[in-house]
Amino acid sequence: MQTSYPVIHPFTWMPPSGSLTPEAWYGQYTCLERGEGSWVYDTHGNAYLYTTTAVPAVGLGHWQVIRAMKEQMEKLSFASTCAQTHNLVQALAEKLISLCSRRYSKVFFANDGSGAVETAMRMVRQHFITRGESRREMFISLDGSYHGTTYGSGSVTHLGIREMFGKGLEGCLCAPTPNLYRPPAGTDSPESAAAFCLKELERIITEAGPENIAAVLVEPIQAVNGIVLMPESFFKQLRALTRQYGILVIADEVTTGLGRAGYWSLSEHYGLEPDVLAVSKGLTGGYFPMGAALISDALDSSLFGEGGILLHGSTQCGHPVGCAAALAVLDIIEQERLPDNALLRGKDLINGFRESLDDHPCVGDIRGQGLMLALEFVKDKQTKEPVDYEWGKKLTKLLHGEGILGNYFNGILLMYPPLNVSEEECDFLIHGVSRALRRMR
Ligand SMILES: Cc1ncc(COP(=O)(O)O)c(C=O)c1O
């Protein structure tokens, strides 16, 4: 009989091993037992509206997805896609291209979002080596960005994580972000913030030498960093700047993509025209771990135009059960027009939060796009000094009491309701969050 708790949880504080019994663990963290639609239930039978992560695109326990996976499981529960294939992987690649953009012509399947970004980085490097520009090894990404946990994707993440492990991949540079709530010093409008950041980006490119830079990675909305919104014009201008220096663009839409931000691809909507598009969370909606990297026609020609091999991949990528799950999830998102629902419900949520919380002394910002929403808390609305750690712990507890599982990080409450969330569930979220916050005054 195990007396100490044996699991290491990701990005989670682990109490000292000596005192860590299973009872101590379960006393501190919620243990979920079942889920249905937008709701999850813990082992005590308490119900929570599940807004913790962008993964459950179509809610939990959806019969259509379960049926598709079960049928696939019974027919072919595994197939390698290394020098073999099965009949769902092509259908899924075609579906993704048709939904995201016909600018893409090939898709690589990874096992998660980090894997999709890692793949994108490798493809870009291989592209430049093939073209005889092997010096182009460096990557630039934005301050506060989160791109994943693998060696490469972790090295282009600028959220204070990489430092824990030493240097990381060499040549990963950080450029400023035109954060609309916390703009760079000296800027006073979205336009001037965008202009400042583009100027800085150009300075970084020219100082490092454009001939050394492979790609700029960008999330159209920074997710983990707190649903950080940037001026829309920034993205087209970023593309123009990178083109000028022959640098590629990787759009990391692991969170924003496939309907979450209201569009199949937000970067497409913004006119970013990336060379690689990375997606994951909503792809299978949490029914199976999977990610994908879609490459532009031009990159396809460079890598495979004369035939070629990508020396990269995993034994389980393109898994047939994952493909069945993804095809079912994407069908639901498409048939039920869930990107439109995300825009509509997202606007209602923002308006509802503004109506009830605008005058709250600690609510510094209420923001979002589609069903990616954030409330940023401050001690003082003028100075924007963040609230302290204990404040967040108390709020999380109060939200629990209201039947809401959100995601509190660094003074910001992130909320990602499923894309098929109902109007009544949105009202529940607005009222529950507002009630909890009124007790925090
Ligand atoms: C924008 C972005 N990129 C990459 C990742 C990494 O995805 P995963 O956790 O599936 O590896 C995340 C995860 O939150 C993300 O938000």
UniProtKB/TrEMBL annotation:
GO terms for molecular function: pyridoxal phosphate binding; transaminase activity. SUPFAM superfamilies: PLP-dependent transferases. Gene3D superfamilies: Aspartate Aminotransferase, domain 1, Type I PLP-dependent aspartate aminotransferase-like (Major domain). PROSITE patterns: AA_TRANSFER_CLASS_3. It comes from the Bacteria. It holds the Pfam family Aminotran_3. CDD domains: OAT_like. Keywords: Aminotransferase, Pyridoxal phosphate, Transferase. Belongs to the class-III pyridoxal-phosphate-dependent aminotransferase family. This is Aminotransferase class III-fold pyridoxal phosphate-dependent enzyme. It comes from Paenibacillus lutrae. The lineage of its organism: Bacteria, Bacillati, Bacillota, Bacilli, Bacillales.
